[in-house]
Amino acid sequence: MTPLNLLCLPYSGASAMVYSRWRRKLPAWLQVRPVELPGRGARMAEPLHTDLQALARQLAAEQRLATAAPYALLGHSLGALLAFELAHELRALGCPEPVALFACGTAAPTRREGYDGKDWREAKSDDALKSELRALNGTPEEVLANDELMSLTLPILRADFLLCGRYAYRQRPALSCPLYVLGAEADRASEAQLLAWRQESCGHFSLQMFPGGHFFIHEQEDAILETLTLRLQSALQAAPQLSVI
Hints:
By secondary structure, the chain is α/β, with parallel strands linked by helices. The chain has one domain: Rossmann fold. Helix content is 37%, strand content 13%. It has a six-stranded parallel beta sheet with strand order 2-1-3-4-5-6, with helices on both faces. α2 packs across α3.
């Protein structure tokens, strides 16, 4: 198979390390490239962003060389919105579109009811952020009780929630790449909110549901990775100029 760069965008509060395990579990031709966001991980010294479109423009400038080879974009939750905006910003730079875009665990950009209310357009207190983490059911209580760890995590989470809460959809020509939406049966986004992603690409569209809650990409990791592998094999086969070395 042709090597393919899989650019992975993290969810709120996370670093690129959340995707590091995938490198060991995916086939060699599928080259996982976690995208680190400013203000965390190896980029801890850089300022955090609260403007999602400005962040997407910065990432597009940084990642444009990765688009010289076949590539796909994947993001979970906040990362899905960011992957979507990154696809548009890369196209604006004259880069080819991804062979596929995977939007996981969040409502479509036009159906953000329940996500973008006034409550999340302003910075939240530590207690409010911890309450949201409990509601998402992905952070152990011992982690929430660790003041040192929370002092590092909560500023990142606060900025990331502002990225989502202040996000403003912009009408642009639809993408042409396949768009695969992955959702969870017990997550916040409704089926209608997930299906609304369909309007964002004139390419092939599918919605696949998994058991679990918001962090189903970890709970159902093996099934998710099998889906990615199959979808990306098909995407490469659908592009004859990329399919064989």
